[in-house]
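# nightly structure sweep
# worker-07 picked up a monomer target from the shared queue
# config: single-sequence mode, recycle default, output format = structure tokens
# input follows
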Amino acid sequence: MEQIAKIQEQIENKPWKTAITIYKNGKSIFENSLANTTYKSASLIKLAIALYIQEVKPQTINNEITLSIKNVVGGAGIINRLSIKTWKIRDLIDLMLSLSDNSATNALLSYYHLDNINSFPNKIFKISH
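# output follows
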């Protein structure tokens, strides 16, 4: 439990908010007071998408996606300014990570399904002793 004490020390009394739950053998062994708090963190999903593709679907990296109107949004990125509608997945990943392109993110979320990506980090980011 020394590792948990170190983690707790790192997250308590800091100017930033941290929500954390640590599981061991499928059971929660540590949860701080903010563990059930929801945070707006749109860009963090981009890391999960890239990791999901790398670990679960690497064979799809050269597949092409034709963007639909619902995938193209404003905000960060360049896809919404271009007339190109069909992209290789590897290029969408690059735009998503390097330019924080929201349209690339939406296209990848749609292609790989949000539920698959949301459940993937829970399978790999577990601390065990």
